[in-house]
Each structure stands twice: as C-alpha cells, then as structure tokens.
Amino acid sequence: MDAALLHSVDDGVATVVISHPAKRNAMTAAMWRALPELLDALSADRAVRVLVLTGAGPTFCAGADISSLAGKEDPQALAVLAEEALAAFPKPTIAAVRGFCVGGGSQLAAACDLRFAEEGSSFGVTPARLGIVYPASSTRRLVSLVGPATAKYLLYSAELIGAEHALRAGFLDELLPAGQLEGRVAEFARILTTRSQLTQAAAKEFADGRSDRAAHWAAEAAASGDTAEGVAAFLERRTPAFTWTAGG
Question: Using an 8 Å Cβ cutoff, are 54 and 97 in contact?
Fold first, then answer.
C-alpha cells in the first residue's frame, strides 16, 4: 500500500490514520506536506468536534522516512510545520498509540492534546542517533509534557522507553490493556463531542499559554448563552444543548 494519510469523519469525530505499512508508518515528505492541509480542511468542518490521530496496523509512527527526504526539502522544517499545525488545531485532539511512537511520531503525538496508548508501546525521541539538533519548539513542547529531566534523558540518549515509563513521566494520559485502545478512545472522543465546544476552545488556548484573550472568551460566553443553558440543563437533569461552535 502506498504511503498516505487516510481520514474519515463519523459522529463528530475525525480520524486521521498514518498509513505507510512498509516502513512502520514512517512519514514521507509528501505526508508531512499533506498533514497541515488536511488539518485545515478538518478544522473548517463544523461537523468535526474531535480529532483522533493514529497509525495503521500495529504501529503508530516510526518517525520520518529518511529515504524520501534526502536531497529535497529540509526534513526538520517539514516536520515542524506539521507538528505546529496539529498543535494549533482548534478542537480537542487525541493520539491513539500502538507499537512504536518514535522520532517524528513522538513529535506528532506530543502535539496532540491527549495521548492514549496500548500496553507494549514504545516511545523515543531520537535525533541524537543522527546528529540532528531537535527543534526548539519541539523541545519546549516535550519539556512541558514530561519536565526538563525526562526531556533531557530522552534527547541525550535517544533510547526508547516503555509505555509504563511514558505514563509515569506524563507523556501519556491513559494506558490501556491490549485490545482496549480503540474502544476507549472511541468512548472518550464521544464524551468530548457532548461537552461545550466553548469551554474546550477557551481551555485549549489558556492551557497552551495564551493569556491575552480572557475578555474575548468572556464575551463569547455571554453572547452564546451556553453557560445559562448548561446551568439550566444541570438543574433540569437533562443533556445540555450547547450552540457555540468553533469558527462562529
């Protein structure tokens, strides 16, 4: 099968699948270039409430396909553009990880809001094996997840760590037994689709460090009526019918 980014949308959940089975889902130059465009299209789709990023088969992503990058665009620049596009996606994002999540795969997983993984998965940040300077933005994102000591451990050594270690370090949010990842991610994504998009969008900005839009979000909340609806639904013991959507 050719290397590709596959996607589908079902009941508010967009699923993007990294598919390059011949190379453990390593990202080619074309795949790095395609990801920001795909994310732009999905972010503009009002039917999309949550995005799940995963890999085809038993592997999430084994990094960059070096053979597709040699002599062409700067591979690091391509990866950073894709990573930043994923981090900027305006709706909740979940990385669903099986198997290897290494190099560029770890960059993509770190750029998601949440990371769920199956037992037996492996994680690594491997530029030290190739003499590559890891991007400053990617380093800061890794530090924000696991702290400076673990980030240095991963970056200095390029060693892989197991899923239990990744969970303890804070890289993972949930670790699932074999066979339960897909069901749990689907369940959690469904929960997110029922929650306030207004709350989620504001929380994402604030959690990512933006501090200049408190007044904007207060005005959005007042105009939307979602707070009143949420309180009324709680008191009436019914499911709230929120109306605010990302993009207005």
Answer: yes
